[in-house]
Amino acid sequence: MNEHQNSNSHLTAKERSTPSLPVRMLLERKLIQGKVLDFGCGFGKDVNHLLIKGFDAKGFDPYYYPEFPTEKFDTILCFYVLNVLFPEEQNRVLMQISQLLKPSGKAYFAVRRDISKDGFRTHQVHGKPTYQCYVKLPYKSIFLNENTEFYEYQHWNKVVEADSKCPFCKPNPALHLLAETPLSYAVLDGYPVAKGHALIVPKRHVANYFELTFDEQKDLVQLSTFVQQMLKSQYHTNDFTFGMNIGKNAGQRIDHATIHLIPRFKGDCANPKGGVRNILNK
Known about the structure:
Order of helices and strands: HEHEEHEEEEEHEEEHEE
Helix content: 10-25%
Largest sheet: 6 strands, mixed
CATH architecture of the largest domain: 3-Layer(aba) Sandwich
Distance between the termini: 58 Å
Strand order of the largest sheet: 2-1-3-4-8-7
CATH superfamily of the largest domain: Vaccinia Virus protein VP39
């Protein structure tokens, strides 16, 4: 199999007659609340169990239940999905789940801890190559043994406790978080210059974008692309201004790198043809 293809990840879904260990444990701890989404639900056995228990639950799986949800959820479950995805695919799942989670909601991830080596291996049942990898998340760990670890996730601006005066290190809980990865987050600007004005922000406190690591820069680009698609759908425009201010002479007021993503509309300025070339005009 080509190292850039991961077309057999769905084969790792298991048929089961009983609910999974993560869902049993979360039910015992009364952590599953409100409207529930099982993201990457496979054959949907946990969803069926939750429905029998009286929960308002639904499942999404790109292969088995491919209708992507349009509403938001109080609880999102994601069990043993990330271990079979490439890093960029993992990031996309994390962004989608953060997008679908209500501001007050919580998501729970289960990952395997018995994987010693990343890579493709032949599936014992299907005889096809499937990818598996070790995954560590920067979220609250609520259970760990030699085989599995469970994490609890909330939106970054609801849980961060940074001892900092930087508004980007400790974002206002009232801000509308659009999506998030382990390295960066996106919110609607609290002082927008246009409707839909979004900020894409690295979580690490670095003033100059070019001093971020390549992984952080790459992460910001992926998150920016994801958010652009969200804004494009919501505000029905293909036009955007995308950029950043680096240094005081360029207009940077806070020493924390940020990317501005601003939807643009016909008639929103006198001379749009000038673009960024107009910024130095006297």
